[in-house]
Design a protein that fits this description.
Elements: H1 3-30, H2 35-45, H3 51-73, H4 81-99, H5 109-129, H6 138-167, H7 171-198
């Protein structure tokens, strides 16, 4: 067996061990251990229950946080954790407040979601950097962690649709839920921003 084959087998074995662990860490970073990210996703959901509208925002958010997660982990971008955490809280409040004045996707919402995704990616990076990891496992760990985050976000959306099916199937019912929920999310984001700014 050639040396290249041995290296390939070793890399595959290492990835097999790393991928499920970091996938699980990414998933649990969202659900149940990421209340700020959960509220951001729910704020996107409460703009409209139309899956196409939600998917367009989720895609932009995913692209953005994947970008800054990678850049931060490679040391290209560095922002203090305290600043990132305050910015994440403010992004939650902003999106939720906008829901109270919009009933459909505005022209500027996609740009905002992408910008806020960049900020959330820095938050994911801070969590990732705290995990012990060998240099050779970095790429499979990064990929699987990011995939875990995506599945965690999809789980949040799935639970939101399930709750909607139970409590507010009709459009009128959705609006009755969406406005007070967005208000509560906005207040929570503002509270977190103040709390994190004082801490």
């Amino acid at each position: 067996m050639t040396r290249i084959s041995l290296l390939f087998i070793f890399a595959a074995t290492a990835a097999t061990a790393v991928v499920p662990r970091f996938f699980a860490l990414g998933f649990t970073h969202i659900l149940p251990n990421g209340p700020d990210h959960i509220l951001f996703i729910l704020a996107l959901f409460f703009l409209s229950r139309n899956f196409g509208v939600l998917l367009s925002q989720m895609t932009l958010f995913t692209l953005a946080h994947s970008l800054t997660l990678g850049l931060a982990l490679y040391g290209i971008v560095s922002v203090p954790t305290a600043v990132v955490e305050i910015a994440i809280a403010l992004s939650i409040a902003f999106v939720a407040i906008e829901n109270l004045f919009q009933d459909r996707l505005s022209r500027w919402r996609p740009f905002l979601v992408f910008s806020f995704g960049l900020i959330h990616g820095l938050g994911f990076a801070h969590s990732f950097q705290e995990m012990p990891l060998h240099a050779g496992d970095f790429l499979p760990a990064l990929f699987s962690f990011n995939m875990g985050i995506e599945f965690g976000q999809l789980a949040v959306v799935g639970l939101a649709y399930l709750a909607l099916a139970i409590w507010g199937r009709r459009e009128e019912g959705f609006k009755m839920i969406a406005r007070p929920a967005s208000t509560l999310i906005a207040l929570t984001g503002i509270y977190w921003a103040i709390q994190r700014g004082v801490a």
